[in-house]
């Protein structure tokens, strides 16, 4: 992020009264610690050493900035349309089977029939991961915070783009900048159960759509 864009974001957060200086940290430093965490998948200890603050201070301001950026996101992220695409509505082989497309995440459900939208989504996710490596791996943050981190990354990406920031993402050695995280489901407890439940729900929805399409096809053949 270019310095002038960083300052514009600081000004916006101050203007909206989402962040303010404290006795020990300025808004600039609070945001810098947050951006460093996202850009390097930095652990609390990494940020402590970089900015010379206690673990408690680092954790507190990460949460505060994350909350502030997510509130600001409403201005910079357009919510998905609740309407069904005209392409889907007007194509017999898609409607009504894919009428929920736009309300769900295509790659999660694995709808290969809507290849154009899926490719776009995958490209966007790839760009976000390059700009914010914290999205490439599991983190020490709870699942609810991980969701907010994704929203924050999208908001920051859009903010940079709106302010004519560079689209080029530096290619650096991620292994040297990312924190090694523990392996195994046991390290994440209930988070894994939640994600597995969502994957199961997605698989169930695919099966329901496939069965509906098959039944309609059989009815058409008998007619």
From TrEMBL:
Residues in DUF8040 domain copies: 1-70
Name of the protein: Uncharacterized protein LOC120251190
Keywords assigned by UniProt, alphabetized: Hydrolase, Metal-binding, Nuclease, Nucleus
Domain DDE Tnp4: residue ranges: 118-158
Family: Belongs to the HARBI1 family.
GO CC, one annotated term: nucleus
Single annotated GO MF: metal ion binding
The encoding gene: LOC120251190
Cofactor(s) needed: a divalent metal cation
InterPro entries: DUF8040, HARBI1-like, HARBI1_dom
């Amino acid at each position: 992020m270019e310095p002038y864009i960083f300052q514009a974001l600081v000004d916006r957060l101050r203007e909206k009264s989402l962040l303010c200086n404290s006795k020990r940290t300025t808004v600039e430093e609070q945001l810098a610690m947050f951006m460093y965490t996202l850009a390097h998948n930095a652990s609390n200890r990494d940020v402590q050493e970089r900015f010379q603050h206690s673990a408690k201070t680092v954790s507190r301001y990460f949460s505060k900035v994350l909350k502030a950026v997510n509130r600001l996101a409403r201005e910079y992220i357009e919510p998905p349309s609740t309407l069904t695409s005209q392409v889907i509505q007007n194509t017999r082989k898609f409607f009504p089977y894919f009428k929920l497309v736009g309300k769900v995440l295509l790659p999660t459900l694995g709808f290969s029939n809507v290849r154009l939208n899926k490719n776009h989504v995958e490209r966007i996710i790839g760009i976000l991961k390059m700009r914010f490596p914290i999205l490439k791996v599991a983190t020490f943050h709870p699942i609810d915070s991980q969701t907010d981190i994704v929203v924050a990354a999208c908001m920051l990406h859009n903010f940079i783009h709106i302010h004519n920031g560079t689209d080029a993402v530096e290619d650096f050695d991620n292994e040297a900048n990312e924190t090694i995280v523990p392996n195994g489901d046991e390290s994440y407890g209930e988070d894994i159960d939640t994600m597995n439940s969502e994957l199961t729900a997605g698989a169930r929805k695919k099966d329901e759509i496939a069965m509906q399409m098959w039944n309609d096809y059989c009815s058409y053949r008998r007619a």
